Amino acid sequence: MSEAARLSPEAARGGADAAPLAGKTVAVVHAAWHSCGSYQVNVSQIAAYKRLGARVLSIAMMDDIGRRPPHGGRWAGYLAATRDIGADRRFYSSAPLSALASRFLIDGWWRLIHGDQATWLIEIAKRAPLPEGFEGERIDLVHANHYFTLPFVETLRRGRRIPIVLETQDIQARQYVLRNKGGFFIPPYATYDDMLKIELEWMRRADLCAHLNEEEHEDFQKLLPKMRHKLIYPAVAEAPRARGREIVIVASDNYANYMSLRWFLQEVVPRGGAARVSIYGNIDGGLRKRDAALYEAHRALFKGRVDDIGAIYANAGCVLLPTVEGHGLSIKAVEALSCGAPLVATPLAFRGMRVDPRRLGNVALAENSAEFALAWRAAQARADAGETPLWELSDTRRLYEESFSPQAYARALATAVATLGIM
């Protein structure tokens, strides 16, 4: 019997009356992050499980040592920024300050100063206690995000056999190598292979590995051939339909975005002529920290972080995706797809998608800085002529609805979870 055949007809179609997980409790375990792509993935997971009829718990684990949550450290900022998470009940945990009196300094911190972020996060998760008030909860399924939450998941399961779906969100060892380029560590340095070995060792404890882009799906199938794998594109909350004329870049502060924006400012802007762009997001702080001179030279382009990013997309006439660095699916690229605006993009912006961007009618694909600047200038000319996007006829909008919408995600998730025998 096929996976889809195990579901009711309504569940297989993902209809409004589909509730294959009615009466079940699902714990979505995730890092206590916000204002980033991973947080939006967590929100969409919770919404999808609720769409499938489950009662959903959000369990946030802080990737640091601190006071009992939700007090102290980064908890206040996290709570303020995550009111829209949508779970039926929320829990919090972090490794306590008392961990510093244990072997943590040897097992975790000593490895971290050599760049071994993989071990550091595992050791934190091992010491994160059962969340306050969690004792009466009984879980039917755990949806864990990132391998490093799995020691914490073992604490939550309390010896019970509960199926685990692990959503990888890229090979984390790749991200650590990128981060280490901008940090200060001492030799001998942790290598990609060192950190990948730890990642794979913990991943083997999951029952199903869900991958949110084609590249990591293929990579993990080769790295862990005996495990079950499923490609499930994430649901990304749709942006408002683009109806404006402003040309925009939206970027949060991470190293890949910094490298991409640096390329845009150094290589594309000098060729842009009279073309204009507004850059939104907290990437301004990241650029200022890493290259103050470059930031000052282009300070006027930056608009900073905004509370309502949807308003930015609604006023967009074109979205620029100058992506030259990064791994995994680009959440901001999917957001841009959803608004239906014309895009000027490098091929790497579409990484991890089973799509040929050259076939998307409202995408100008640029292989180099000269092509990017040419397409940007053309977009500016359309804006100056008063043209606005026709989002309802947009190829990118249709791609979003078919592959990245909440409905598409819930359908794919239901099919995957059906193989675990909890429905």
From TrEMBL:
One of its GO terms (molecular function) is glycosyltransferase activity. Keywords: Glycosyltransferase, Transferase. It is an enzyme of class 2 (transferase). It comes from the Bacteria. Its EC number is 2.4.-.-. SUPFAM superfamilies: UDP-Glycosyltransferase/glycogen phosphorylase (SSF53756). Pfam families: Glyco_trans_1_4. PANTHER family: GLYCOSYLTRANSFERASE WBBK-RELATED. This is Glycosyltransferase. The lineage of its organism: Bacteria, Pseudomonadati, Pseudomonadota, Alphaproteobacteria, Hyphomicrobiales.
